[in-house]
Amino acid sequence: QLQEILAHTDCGSDLKHLVKATYYCSHDSTSGALNAVRPDYYDPARPPAASKAIVPGVGHPERRITLDMIAVRKPQN
Predict the structure, then answer these.
(1) pLDDT digits 0-9 by tens, 22-73
(2) Cβ neighbours of residue 17 under 8 Å, at least 6 residues apart?
(3) Alpha-carbon distance 24 to 62, whole Å?
(4) Third-level CATH fold of 2-71
(5) Using an 8 Å Cβ cutoff, are 23 and 34 in contact?
(6) Which of 25, 51, 71, 74 is the most buried (most CB within 10 A)?
(7) CA-to-CA separations, 4 to 1, 7, 29, 57, 75, in angstroms, rounded
(8) Domain definitions of the chain by residue range
(9) Do the Cβ atoms of 66 and 58 come closer than 8 Å?
(10) Of the candidates 35, 2, 23, which has an alpha carbon nearest to the alpha carbon of residue 70?
(11) Strands (DSSP E) along 6-64, which ranges?
């Protein structure tokens, strides 16, 4: 589920231009999965500022994670 969300880059930016991310995870296992995949998507030399909280249900009983992300547009060459 998280990998599908992070794959969406059709908004004029990409994860290399992400400046802030807030993650709301429903369980500790979801938080652990997030920790495992984050390095695959973000440049470890320049990761976005981030915060994470465990929030049971995160708005819907079936949902395991909710993301709130802020990015800047990619420069136009």
Answers:
(1) 999 999 999 999 999 888 888 778 889 999 999 987 877 788 888 898 888 7
(2) 71, 72, 73, 74
(3) 14
(4) 60s Ribosomal Protein L30; Chain: A; (3.30.1330)
(5) yes
(6) 25
(7) 5, 5, 18, 19, 25
(8) 2-71
(9) yes
(10) 23
(11) 18-25, 49-54
